[in-house]
């Protein structure tokens, strides 16, 4: 750098959050123009070891940026560290003292008091005495204020009191609250109508935590990181309010010139309706939000996935009780989607077939309304033209693509292109439920029951169930749906086959055995059909779902 007047900037650490630092103007009166001295930048990086840099011989990763710094300067080959943790090491750098000389020089919460005596000499004070302008940018983590900080007011003592002319810092570090920046002692972007509160002992009423609300997270909580949820990431401690001032991790992580790329990389969730009929635990493990449909039986209202058990439900149907289902309305759909949008996330919803329910249309209406209120958000609702584990199969591959790093648009495009390749092969044991749903006539139901006719059903390209064949006898019908899957899947690499059943596990296991025998696939998911779709198929339904050439 060629500044005649000297400048000192301490970058007080970067914790997985790269920051661009530019040297500012020095004090022109303190040094004559003919005495040029270099600017000094001190970079403190968290979790960076000697053996992590390629300039020191590391081979697993390449570090060209830091290699350039090393090649243009002095490279140290021997050194000692006073403490290999955040706060103690920063304390030593700032004061020149061993951290064990100060019992407070330990890893601190985000609301800890400043641990450096403002009357003592510090590195930035020494630099100021030498004529430097001083500044600190990035991670701080050596405490602020007196331990009783009101984040809605100017916070002192802090960077200024230990010798910095300018500061733009995190209150502590990126894994704990408050998740805001302070510029010269004031929280940046704070809305006075939404004050900021922080507590490290107990949560604020009504505020979700990572431990109790994993469905709101885009990152799993680690030990000690299950408190406040900020930007979908669990942090240490509890935070309320200050939404406008919260940093966005993506913006912090990338330089300003990559702003559009950051927009394109917005975090997103994939949501479904309960008609996906996957095990509840399977969905929870993968943090897939589910909007359930409802049904009524014996005058009682139930929620799909959390109402009656499969055994209880199908027993009622066998006893002649009727189950009436109801679709999701736009208000319910909005109530489900809006929290994710408020968190700054985009949403990809894989919807229940429009050929079977008005739920898809309600989801679409809700998405359109939210798009008006949150123009920065992307909400994509796909009419899967699938039902039951057909939706589940589409979700399975969508989640795999997300894990591979595909964008929301790429996954949506794949889902649209492949949804009609999700094949549904179904047989039912009781024709009366099809008759009640208007699929067959009453006469056909009576006659078919007498002669043991079992219909073969598939999902057509309009997302509607159609009877396409009949088999006499249960075993033949079970064999038929497997044979259909075999034909459909030729030329396709099915990673998994999904099988659903209406409280007839032995029949489902028989079908699974035939799948292994004829398709050579061991990865098979078997699950009870859900209560909403089961209301229309009745007990004894068995279905095989696979990716194939055509339905």
Protein architecture, described:
This protein has 551 residues and is of the alpha/beta class. It folds into three domains: 7-190, Alkaline Phosphatase, subunit A, CATH 3.40.720.10; 263-417, Rossmann fold (3-Layer(aba) Sandwich); 421-547, 2-Layer Sandwich (Hypothetical Protein Tm841, Chain: A,domain 3). The protein is 29% helix and 20% strand. The strands form six sheets. The chain has a six-stranded mixed β-sheet with strand order 2-1-3-4-5-6. α8 (330-342) crosses α9, α10 (389-403) runs antiparallel to α11 and α14 packs parallel to α15 (505-519). The protein is elongated and about 95 Å long.
Summarize this entry quickly.
By secondary structure, the protein is of the alpha/beta class. It has 16 helices and 23 strands.
Q: What is the total number of structural domains? A: 3
Q: Count all strands and give the number.
A: 23
Please state how the strands of the largest beta sheet are arranged side by side.
2-1-3-4-5-6
> N- to C-terminal separation?
68 Å
Outline? elongated
Low-pLDDT runs: 1-34
CATH class of the largest domain: Alpha Beta
Radius of gyration: 31 Å
The helix-and-strand class reads alpha/beta
Q: Strand share of the residues?
A: 15-25%
Helix content percent band:
25-40%
Q: Please work out how many helical segments DSSP would assign.
A: 16
At the fourth level of CATH, the homologous superfamily of the largest domain is Alkaline Phosphatase, subunit A
Which fold does the CATH topology of the largest domain refer to?
Alkaline Phosphatase, subunit A
**How is the main sheet built?**
6 strands, mixed
Average pLDDT = 85
Question: Any idea what the CATH architecture of the largest domain is?
Answer: 3-Layer(aba) Sandwich
């Amino acid at each position: 750098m060629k500044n005649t007047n000297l400048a000192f900037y301490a970058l007080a650490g970067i914790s997985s959050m790269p920051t661009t630092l530019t040297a500012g103007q020095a004090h022109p009166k303190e040094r004559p123009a003919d005495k040029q001295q270099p600017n000094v930048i001190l970079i403190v990086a968290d979790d960076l070891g000697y053996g992590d840099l390629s300039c020191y011989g590391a081979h697993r990763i390449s570090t060209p940026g830091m290699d350039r710094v090393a090649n243009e300067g002095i490279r140290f080959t021997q050194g000692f560290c006073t403490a290999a943790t955040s706060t103690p090491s920063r304390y030593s750098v700032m004061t020149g003292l061993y951290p064990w000389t100060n019992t407070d020089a330990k890893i601190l919460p985000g609301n800890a008091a400043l641990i450096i005596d403002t009357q003592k000499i510090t590195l930035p004070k020494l630099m100021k005495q030498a004529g430097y302008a001083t500044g600190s940018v990035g991670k701080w983590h050596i405490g602020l204020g007196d331990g009783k900080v009101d984040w809605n007011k100017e916070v002192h003592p802090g960077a200024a009191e230990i010798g910095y002319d300018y500061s733009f810092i995190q209150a502590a570090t990126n894994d704990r609250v408050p998740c805001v920046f302070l510029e010269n002692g004031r929280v940046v972007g704070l809305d006075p109508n939404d004050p900021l509160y922080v507590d490290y002992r107990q949560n604020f009423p009504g505020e979700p935590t990572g431990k109790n609300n994993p469905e709101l997270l885009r990152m799993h909580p680690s030990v000690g990181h299950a408190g406040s949820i900020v930007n979908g990431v669990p942090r240490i401690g509890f935070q309320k309010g200050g939404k406008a001032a919260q940093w966005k991790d993506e913006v912090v992580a990338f330089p300003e010139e990559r702003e559009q790329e950051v927009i394109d990389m917005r975090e997103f969730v994939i949501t479904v309706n309960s008609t996906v009929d996957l095990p509840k635990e399977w969905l929870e493990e993968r943090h897939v939000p589910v909007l359930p449909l409802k049904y009524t039986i014996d005058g009682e209202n139930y929620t799909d996935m959390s109402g009656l058990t499969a055994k209880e439900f199908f027993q009622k149907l066998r006893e002649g009780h009727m189950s009436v289902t109801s679709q999701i309305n736009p208000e319910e759909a909005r109530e489900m989607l809006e929290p994710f949008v408020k968190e700054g996330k985009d949403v990809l919803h894989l919807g229940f077939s429009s050929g079977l329910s008005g739920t898809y249309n309600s989801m679409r209406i809700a998405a359109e309304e939210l798009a008006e209120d949150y123009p920065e958000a992307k909400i994509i609702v796909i009419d899967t033209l699938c039902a039951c584990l057909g939706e589940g199969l589409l979700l399975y591959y969508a989640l795999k693509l997300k894990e591979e790093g595909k964008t929301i648009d790429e996954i949506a495009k794949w889902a649209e292109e492949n949804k009609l390749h999700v094949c549904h092969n179904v047989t039912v044991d009781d024709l009366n439920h099809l008759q009640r749903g208007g699929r067959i006539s009453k006469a056909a139901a009576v006659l078919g029951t007498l002669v043991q006719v079992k219909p073969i059903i598939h999902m057509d390209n309009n997302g509607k169930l159609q009877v396409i064949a009949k088999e006499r006898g249960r075993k033949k019908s079970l064999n038929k749906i497997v044979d259909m899957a075999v034909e459909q899947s030729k030329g396709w690499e099915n990673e998994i086959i999904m099988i659903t059943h209406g409280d007839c596990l032995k029949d489902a296991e028989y079908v699974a055995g035939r799948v292994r025998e004829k398709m050579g696939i061991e990865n098979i998911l078997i699950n009870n059909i859900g209560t909403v779709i089961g209301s229309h198929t009745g007990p004894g339904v068995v279905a095989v779902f696979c990716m194939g050439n055509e339905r």
